[in-house]
Design a protein that fits this description.
The strands form two sheets. The protein has a seven-stranded parallel beta sheet, with helices on both faces. Helix 1 (about 10-25) crosses helix 16 (about 355-365) and helix 3 (about 65-85) packs across helix 4 (about 95-110). The chain folds into two domains: about 1-170 and about 350-365, Rossmann fold (3-Layer(aba) Sandwich); about 190-345, Glycogen Phosphorylase B (Rossmann fold, 3-Layer(aba) Sandwich). By secondary structure, it is α/β, with parallel strands linked by helices. Strand 11, helix 12 (about 285-290) and strand 12 form a beta-alpha-beta unit. The chain has helices at about 10-25, 40-50, 65-85, 95-110, 130-140, 150-160, 170-175, 190-195, 215-230, 240-250, 265-275, 285-290, 305-310, 320-335, 335-345, 355-365; strands at about 1-5, 30-35, 55, 90-95, 115, 145, 165, 200-205, 235, 260, 280, 295-300, 315. The structure holds uridine-diphosphate-N-acetylglucosamine and uridine-5'-diphosphate. The site of uridine-5'-diphosphate has 16 residues, from helix 1, helix 11 and helix 12.
Length: about 375
């Protein structure tokens, strides 16, 4: 059996590399990796950590690229890769435009698609944008659907997707076995210099629907929280998208309680999270990782496709208004009971063996 794994952005790489390594460990499977290069530096950071060397690199990234450009560049360039490799199955992940376009190209070549992290939904096609639509399109294009949770499986079932659906857990939890160590030394100079003895919020924000005014409101909330809590520190590795950086740096760079830095590698990120008191984020992956480390998550969005964390009591959706963010974070920081309840909640996203389950299922299908 020959599997072609395709990904292009940082979060896909973090969640697909454990699966690539599990596939490579199995002698019955020939594994090929194609990266689209939708991200460059942020993707390469992950490949290095997991020591995954792609067989194909489409290298498509352009500054402030449009969705049209990503889609057409991936569809067009995937053709030659699929022709050359002739895989039995193409594995894509989640909801990026890389994944949607790679699934479409595979369909055009009549090669079955396996969708890792299937069945997440907000039921709002503009939030997250364009990811919610990407998810629906990938579900329609896929033959195998590896759903992290029972909630995700049920969402697929409601849409009439019942064949080839399996609950596996999320491969993001598998990634921790490659990243966290007891005595860890940070690579990023900003993290190495940071005193995690001070209560620290680890923060990220990058989503397309948060660019502009919402991002400004988020930064205003951070400044207000720092004013209310003089001992608080905020560490924010800022996404390389200029549309993010052009808002965040002018708003936060002069705040002495805030450390802004370039994106850090995933080992640094996981270990920084482990040393922080709380995670403030619009990221999907961080909503799954923080509960694994027993850290409360405040979600900088109006809805989430990860209701399991909210139901488990480990995440709160705070919206993108300054006041609501300040109120939610303030309560968690000042009310010990609320904090402990959130920190002690059970992580609903898996046991760290999702990749092995996916490999076993693929072998059953292709035996
Ligand atoms: C993409 C995904 C989003 C995912 C996010 C993870 C889509 C439509 N969006 O959004 O689902 O949550 O990745 O981070 O698929 N850039 C660099 N170097 C890098 C990466 C990005 O310079 O290594 C800059 C470039 O100017 C690029 C811009 O960031 O054009 C935006 O990147 P893009 O992949 O289009 O969007 P993201 O917001 O990263
Ligand atoms: N991450 C990282 N370095 C950073 C910021 C995030 O390694 O500077 C990791 C984070 O731990 C998680 C993933 O990147 O595994 C999340 O990616 P991102 O927020 O870009 O995308 P999303 O999850 O929202 O799709």
């Amino acid at each position: 059996m020959k599997a072609l794994v395709v990904f292009g952005t940082r979060p896909e790489a973090i969640k697909m590399c454990p699966l690539v390594l599990a596939l490579q460990r199995d002698d019955a499977i020939e594994t090929k990796v194609c990266v689209t290069g939708q991200h460059r530096e942020m993707l390469d950071q992950v490949l290095e950590i997991f020591r995954v060397v792609p067989d194909h690199d489409l290298n498509i990234m352009r500054p402030q690229q449009t969705l049209e450009l990503i889609t057409t560049a991936v569809v067009e360039n995937m053709g030659a890769v699929l022709e050359a490799e002739k895989p039995d199955v193409v594995l894509v992940h989640g909801d990026t435009t890389t994944s949607m376009a790679a699934a479409l190209a595979s369909f055009y070549h009549q090669i079955p698609v396996g969708h890792v992290e299937a069945g997440l939904r907000t039921y709002n096609i503009y939030s997250p944008f364009p990811e919610e639509m990407n998810r629906k399109l990938i579900s329609a294009l896929s033959t195998y659907h590896f759903a992290p949770t029972e909630t995700n499986r049920a969402a697929l079932e409601r849409e009439g997707v019942e064949q080839g659906v399996h609950v596996t857990g999320n491969t993001v939890i598998d990634a921790f076995q490659y990243t966290t160590y007891d005595s860890y030394e940070f690579v990023s100079p900003a993290l190495a210099a940071h005193d995690f003895g001070q209560p620290t919020i680890l923060m990220t924000a990058h989503r397309r629907e948060n660019l502009g005014a919402p991002m400004e409101h988020i930064c205003d909330a951070v400044n207000e929280l720092c004013r209310r809590h003089p001992d608080l520190r905020v560490v924010y590795p800022v996404h390389l998208n200029p549309a993010v950086r052009n808002t965040v740096f002018p708003k936060l760079q002069d705040n002495p309680q805030v450390t802004l830095c370039d994106p850090v590698d995933v080992q640094d990120m996981h270990n920084a999270m482990a040393r922080s008191v709380l995670v403030l984020t619009d990221s999907g992956g961080l909503q799954e990782e923080a509960p694994h480390l027993g850290k409360p998550v405040v979600v900088l969005r109006t809805e989430t496709e990860r209701p399991e964390a909210v139901e488990a009591g480990t995440a709160v959706v705070a919206g993108v208004q300054t006041d609501s963010i300040v109120d939610v974070v303030d309560t968690i920081l000042t009310d010990k009971e609320t904090y402990e309840r959130m920190a002690e909640a059970i992580n609903p996203y898996g046991d760290g063996h999702a990749s092995e389950r996916i490999v076993a299922l693929l072998k059953e299908y292709f035996a």
